[in-house]
Protein 1
Amino acid sequence: MPEQLNPGERLVRCLTGGSVDRLPFGVGIGWCPWGETMERWKRESGQPKLNVAQALGYDPDFAIPELESGPFPHFEPEVLEESDDLIVSRDWRGITMRNRRDGGSMPEFLDYPVKTVADWDRLQAERYRLDTVALDRRVIQNWDDFRTRLKNTGEAVQVGVFPWGVFGTARDLLGAEELLIAFYTEPDLIKDIMQHLTSLWLLLWERVAQEVQIDHIHIWEDMSGRQGSLISPAMIAEFMMPCYDRIAHFAQTHQVRMVSVDSDGDCSELVPLMMRHGVNVFFPFEVQAGNEICDYRKQYPQLGIWGGLDKRVLAQSRRDIDCELEKIPAMARLGGRFVPQFDHLIPPDVPWDNFVYAAGRIREMCNN
């Protein structure tokens, strides 16, 4: 076993099969609460300024440079309609949505910026330019400050973050239903959108690579439901994997050790296909969608698995929590390449005491 590692090296090695001193603790979206959950925890903990990461001693996550990876300049946010309970607004991505004022549910998405090829052509010219001047303006990170941060925290460096993905961002441009139809009616448009977005990100990441070593490329897709992928493996291969091959080439050229994908839902169709095109880490492995991480570990020994603990047990008994957490030593016995986290943001039916108990048990397991 190596000597004590810094947090970034521990996290990357753990997910890519290297030797580690212990498992990373408290890293990933599955350690974060929804807004309603956070308000409940503040009340129950008696800490109106509760910081969960500090209170429970989470390890640092990845350090992500400040880049403008979407429409730039942003759309001007605008409130279009409001009532006592609801607000209809357009956000900085150009998406129009209806939200509850109390934030108590997912928004209802009403309209998107791309409806025609002409819309996309105009967006490219106005907000997705690839020329040097436009790219320079997208890099807003102060690199001296960033290098100082890395030296002080020992974090690993990630490029790519929510909501940027080959499928995921195309969906945010057209809307889910419109995108799925356009795979058939406007295939050239979809391929152009995906390739153009990939070009933008690779050009930005090249600027990052000139300043610091990149350890992790993240691709946010969210392209599965309980029934599996929203598009067929054949469509994934035709439309998306040429972009992934370009990303994989960048990773190989720049010695980037991790390429991860985030997709909710049943990811059993995505994992083997994307692994063949450079992806080596997946998360969050939603249990209620049928994902069982021990089965994935047996089937894909080289896959980094990040997540897979059922968040629903956190609202149940401590016995139920303990039973679910037995997956952690089981994954170690099956070969590792695993970082524990719950399978999405923590919902508001979870008591603070239950979460503290679960976190304490997981921390013990990570240290053993």
Protein 2
Amino acid sequence: SLTGIPPTAGFMGKYLLFQAAIGRKLYLLAAAGALNSAISLFYYFRIGRAMFMEERPEDPPTLRPSPSVTAVLALCALVLLVLGILPHLVSDWASASGLSD
């Protein structure tokens, strides 16, 4: 979600932010944001590569998360996906607040 990969809430947030910047003709700001997103993508994927593609040590320690930690992580992932697929759940609420255009 931090890198802005669809269909997560981070993608919709960045999309709406870039759309607003371009709509107000702030092209340099939108380009700087896109460049920053590309740089962050590089750093975040390094973590994923280390987790899933590099070889493990000979005898890695076994850690088992508790059921409550697993439930919280699953809930957070579900919320990120739901807000990415159905962004109007939050954007309509923000528009009704009168703080956005």
